Amino acid sequence: MSGAAIYPGSFDPPTFGHLDLIARAAGLFPRLVVAVVGNPSKRALFSVEERVDLLTAELDGVAGVEVTAFDGLLVDLCAQLGIPTVVKGLRDGGDLDVELRMARTNREIGDVETVLLASDPARSHLASSFVREIARFGGRLDHAVPPRVEAALRERLRA
What we know:
Order of helices and strands: EHEHEHEHEHH
Number of helices: 6
Largest sheet: 3 strands, parallel
Structural class: alpha/beta
CATH superfamily: HUPs
Radius of gyration: 15 Å
Low-confidence stretches: none
CATH class: Alpha Beta
Number of strands: 5
Strand content: 15-25%
Helix content: 40-55%
Strand order of the largest sheet: 1-2-3
Distance between the termini: 44 Å
Number of domains: 1
Shape: globular
Mean pLDDT: 94
């Protein structure tokens, strides 16, 4: 593929599933903007700035990838950056239902196309909400997040 794409998400926290999709999308697009959503309807464990910092550190050295924060409509960010394509990951049929509706809406209101990537089966069970719950109870996280993210989770939950 050519051009650029945006991979949006809350990334609270970033998981190996997110990082896998980012690496794969970076192989498809010469420029990939990872857009961290500041969604006020969700109670985030980490601030947008902290999530941007975690992702930036994890993606250091991945060619063509940049990390930014945004609030508002994804189609507005696409227009602002001149990027007509969004990449989303699919873990299962539930994700497909939601992502298809969002893709159709984004195309209708912003002329933005969506590329859907199936998650790696070894990572398809990962969800940030599960990771936060496991962390709250002191469970193992080495299968779900990089060491830097695990350390940040443990520190945050100690506070």
